[in-house]
Amino acid sequence: MTSQLVRKLGSASRFPSDHPWITRAGSFKNSQELEEEERFAFLIRKCPNMRVLRQLHAHILTRPLPLSTFSFALSKITVFCALSPLGNIDYARLVFAQISRPSIFSWNSLIKGCSKIQNPSKEPIALFQKLTETGYPVPNSFTMAFVLKACAIVTAFEEGLQVHSRVLKDGFGSSSFVQTSLVNFYGKCEEIGLATKVFDEMPDRNLVAWTAMISGHVRVGAVDEAMGLFREMQKAGVEPDAVTLVSVVSACAAAGALDIGSWVHAYIEKHSVLTDLELGTALVDMYAKCGCIERAKQVFVHMPVRDTRAWSSMIMGFAYHGLSEDAIGVFRQMLEAEVMPDRVTFIGILSACAHGGIVSEGLRFWSLMLECGIEPSVEHYGCIVDLLCRTGLVEEAYRIVTTTNIPSNPATWRSLLKGCKKKKLSNLGEIVARYLLQLEPLNAENYIVISNLYSSVSQWEKMSELRKEMKENDVKPIPGCSSIEVDGVVHEFEMGDQSHPEVKILREFMEEMAKRVWDSGYRPSVSDVLHKVMYEEKEGALGEHSERFAIAYGLLKTRAPVVIRVVKNLRVCGDCHEVIKIISKIYEREIIVRDRVRFHKFVEGTCSCKDYW
DNA sequence: CTAGGGTTAG
């Protein structure tokens, strides 16, 4: 049987002729036994599939073997089944159970093996607990690293803390692998303070530890700190690799830092860092989120291999740039390339259709999604409701929301309300508004949309009532936000922002700007007037909207075209475009607006102020 | 056998 297998595996994998095991120190096994063990190890390692492995397993079970050889072979089978991509974790568990006293090696493999399956559970943690209870074999630093990784995957904070205390008790605190695992674990649990503490105490910070720190900070949105760590890392003479750069690029995406993002891209090319799937996807996402859809596309088309996530990020990019046709085109190419769309892909393509108001196509994608066996979730329903509302099919959308068994979602109801406003359906709007305010009474955006609805049907009394209600509930809108990058520094401005160091010069400049715009004959439209009524802004002033701060800063500080990013949906804000056009003309400067409608996420219960203009 | 990575509606 064994020789048959050797033959089957072909001449390329001939059994090695050197015999290092004969000289292995401290072994009580005779060379014949050792030879047999090595033979098994070799065969198992070279197994082409599970079928052959099962045959080998059967062979081992039926042949009389010394106990030590038997256990050795079974532990090798456990390792193969648990860790090889060809393996099978269920089989690994089975074989593991057949070993009377599994070595720490087998335990480790099983712990690692069952944390890398697609639906990870706390099983590896339970295994570790069982291991520590029995007291044999003694865990080693590998065990600690694996179980910490398992805790990180399922963000089992309490369990991880206990492992950390064991690490210290058992003296594994000085292992750099264990330290790095701890940094990563705390980072995954969003416990940045604890991650930093472990990291600061590391005498030798390796690349992986730096990367874990950076990705941890990006995870909690501490983008500046992430970039600071990246700089510190380079100062410490540690060269980033592709994995590090994925986190750095993600940080740029989250910050909308196009300059730094482009610099990182240039770094990647200059240092010939291999742009794999993850890095490619991160770059596509970064360029799209920084408003540079052309470069996102450029990176995307140059990717040699694209998986579902790569395609999805490109589709999402087109979607939030309002380029529905491109999104649909890319989606078609994806299907042609026989890459399976997943639930995220459909969120992208449906939101693209919603942005473009392409109903028929959107509904077709919806059916396709069902055909693909994807259960529609809140997000998908949100897209389809938004699609119907934007194209005026509000009643149909309302029917879906009220008859489908999906959880009530403020955003979906807000889409309905916007649809009602658009079609001036005050009766349905009233019902929707009441429900929405019940669902989310502290979100200023809700009041603004409802107020817009009342004003569109001239129900002024209801509008002032609403204003009172808003005041009583002490609801204040979170201001819009715009940013501009000057010499690699991103300057963020909130509406009415006072915190910028040069705010005095800026304000003077803006007053002049407002005056010149006013003199040009521009007058605010209904929504600006509404804004004044609600927030008692000074008569005659243009309003210190965030993008005007950013433009003013750009005009003052650069000679290059002023590129600003706005956290608003410009497609519904005609006034913004108009003001910017006028400013551009007056100052004879090119002003480029990057629409960053989705780039900043506001916490629930706040307002993105889209209808604030 | 150690540790770090990408896409998610409005």
UniProtKB/TrEMBL annotation:
Keyword terms, alphabetized: Repeat
Start and end residues of each DYW domain: 521-613
Pfam families xref list: DYW_deaminase (PF14432), E_motif (PF20431), PPR (PF01535), PPR_2 (PF13041)
PPR repeats: 103-138, 206-240, 307-341, 342-376
GO molecular function terms attached to this record: RNA binding; zinc ion binding
Signal peptide, first to last residue: none
Gene Ontology BP terms: RNA modification
PANTHER family per the UniProt record, alphabetical: PENTATRICOPEPTIDE REPEAT SUPERFAMILY PROTEIN (PTHR47926:SF461), PENTATRICOPEPTIDE REPEAT-CONTAINING PROTEIN (PTHR47926)
Family as reported in the entry's similarity comment: Belongs to the PPR family. PCMP-H subfamily.
NCBIfam families (UniProt xref): PPR
Protein's UniProt name: Pentatricopeptide repeat-containing protein At4g21065-like
Organism per entry: Cucurbita moschata (Winter crookneck squash)
Gene designation per UniProt: LOC111441735
